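This section describes the prediction task in plain terms. A model, or a person checking by hand, is given the sequence of a single protein chain and must write out its three-dimensional structure as a string of tokens. No templates, partner chains or ligands are provided. The sample shown here is typical of the held-out split.
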Amino acid sequence: MDRSAVTQRVWELAEPLALAADLELVDVQYRPEGGRLILRLLLDRPDGGVTLDQLTRVSREVGDVLDAHDAVPGRYSLECSSPGLNRPLIREVHFRRALGRQVRIRTRTPIGERRQLRGTLEAVTADGVTISEASTGSTFIPFALIERANIEYDFGRPAGPHAHA
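The expected answer:
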């Protein structure tokens, strides 16, 4: 089973368990790190603030379900954590929550000779996102071209339109 098939199967099995714990499954990552396979689930609450108890509970439950379904071939280490400040943006809803924030986007193919774009997330549509870069202005990026996207947290600036003073 290839890695994308594993991550898809894990997503299908883990998401209901996350939702039952009032958590959102943000991402599933399955890759070699340090000579071993790591299966990492990134979990958060829609309003932020996931607790260690929630992560521990979901980790235990997901581990049991994955073992029962033999969903991951061979030996692996399961890690459950919060997405952190530079959280990945995977689904349209993640991008919508990040409106007004600084983001970094890597594209599958170049847009204007660049694959790395960094700027303020201006708009989100069903087809893609628009970011504003200081040097080049606004750029539309179709979802189909996004390879990876993350919030870029800047400790010197408020967190966006929902930041509290």
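For orientation: The helical segments are 3-20, 52-69, 92-97.
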